[in-house]
Amino acid sequence: MEPTVEDAVSSDFGLINKLDIHCDLKTLNDDLRKSLESEEKKKAKREESNEITHSQDMKEKLGSGEPSCSVKVHTAPQPGRGADLSKPPCRKAKEIRKERKRLKLMQQNPAGECEGFQAQCQPSSLLPPKTKSNQPKSLEDLIFESLPENASHKLEVRVVRSSPPSSQFKATFQESYQVYKRYQMVVHRDPPDKPTVSQFTRFLCSSPLETENSPNGPDCGYGSFHQQYWLDGKIIAVGVIDILPYCVSSVYLYYDPDYSFLSLGVYSALREIAFTRQLHEKTPQLSYYYMGFYIHSCPKMKYKGQYRPSDLLCPETYVWVPIEQCLPSLEKSKYCRFNQDLEAVDEGRSKEPDRLQVFYKKAIMPYGVYKKQQRDPSEEAAVLQYARLVGQACSERMLLFRN
Fold it and tell me: Bias regions of kind Basic and acidic residues — which residues (predicted)?
């Protein structure tokens, strides 16, 4: 006789645990397995019937006031109503996202449905790699992200030509100068009489670069510019840059000290990098952002190494070397050769110094002609040092002034 729930209740209202016996069905034949499964089904039905009967008995005892114990009763789950046939069947979230993407592509391209069908028929090796939806945003996404019309503040960046000065540069000169003066006094501790208008003009406004507008160049042309950062109608920072055929050179940055909490130095560098990439789309050869000299032992100059990928110029072979390879050597010595090839030399070194161009007495002449007119032995050493520093190509394109 099979035990019932009543048998599990002892005279002291305790519970007697039933012992479950597990058989290894792998050792039994098919007939015996079927027999056991049939017996288990019958047993489950009898236990379900006994549990319901016991539940009714418990209710009668509670109603009569008789003492009872807490017994865990297993009841069969109530049958549900089933699937709602008036609603579409449930789908996985991944399938829903795919469907939305397909509809979006169809809206952008009328022939998208046909193209999508053809793409599905292609083998997986021919399909483009799947793009991850959680990829980090690009620099352009962060810099040029549009703000709502009701934003609390408005930031505007204007690029104005500084040499020769454009009308926009002239109209904002005084405001820009006042920001520069406050920056020099607060950040660099300059006395009030040092950052004068003439000093500001000579330092950051006058430029030896000539204006050039090339049909294949950037729309703003080549030359020297001020990149002004306007916040809510006032200048808070200015980045001084040179736009050259192969790079954008960052010359200087000054900002209103009241807004130093915005990390304007970092933001302006990222903004200039994004600007360089923007110019690169129109002028492919313009593909570098030059931050100037890097001084590893100076904190005010060392920050430039935080922007990657970056290269440093080897001072002996004049080849660009990734900064990661240079930093261990700079930790040991202030001056070091970055090029690890000990046999490498400067390929652009001065090999024919007599072809160096000299400007002397309002006349242009090769150094070979100029040195015949000189008797000072130290003059030759100075000219050869200049030729070694600038290289053969530049020594023939530039003029060395001598008096």
Answer: 37-63
> How many Å apart are CA 302 and CA 308, to the nearest integer?
13
Residues 192-250: pLDDT tens digits? 999 999 999 999 999 999 999 999 899 999 999 999 999 999 999 999 999 999 999 99
Residue 108 corresponds to which amino acid? Q
Contact 395, 356 (CB under 8 A): yes
* The two three-digit tokens of residue 239, written as one number: 């980045």
Give the angle subtended at the CA of 291 by the CAs of 290 and 297, to the nearest 5°. 140
Helix, strand or coil, per DSSP, at residue 319:
coil
Bridging pattern class, strands 357-360 and 400-402: parallel
Nearest alpha carbon to residue 373 among 338, 403, 328: 403
Comparing CA positions, the residue from 238, 270, 275, 272 lying closest to residue 254 is 238
* CA 401 to chain CA mean position, Å: 46
332: pLDDT strictly greater than 90: yes
Contacts of residue 225, defined as CB under 8 A and 6 or more positions apart, other chains included, come to: 159, 160, 161, 162, 240, 241, 242, 243
Phi, psi of 134 (to 5 degrees): -105, 30
